[in-house]
Amino acid sequence: VQLVESGGGLVQPGGSLTLSCVASGTIFNIYTMKWHRQSPGKQRELVATITGGGLTTYVDSVKGRYTISRDNAKNTVTLQMNNLKPEDTAVYYCNCINSWGKGTLVTVSS
After folding, report:
1. Which of 17, 63, 78, 103 is most solvent-facing, going by the fewest CB within 10 Å?
2. Whole-number average pLDDT of the chain
3. Which letter does DSSP use for residue 40 in this model?
4. Burial level of 89, CB count in 10 A (0-12/13-18/19+)?
């Protein structure tokens, strides 16, 4: 499985960003897709998951602010991030089974 993330960038606190991950090389719609993040000096953290059927889970710190979704026809999983906080600053990674993307940097700063 090959995964390519996009959509990171610099945003002010309270702002929004949408991350996308395009998958290739697998039957996309049967696998659970995950977004993780890693901040400097911290361990990688699981942020959100979505099953092939669309069931979602979130880490407590992003509940109500982040939304994970998928478009199986486009082999794409999206992470909509609203009301961003400086502590959301991290490299965000897309993950499927044992495959990882290279990550996309999100910086929340004024």
Report:
1. 63
2. 95
3. T
4. middle
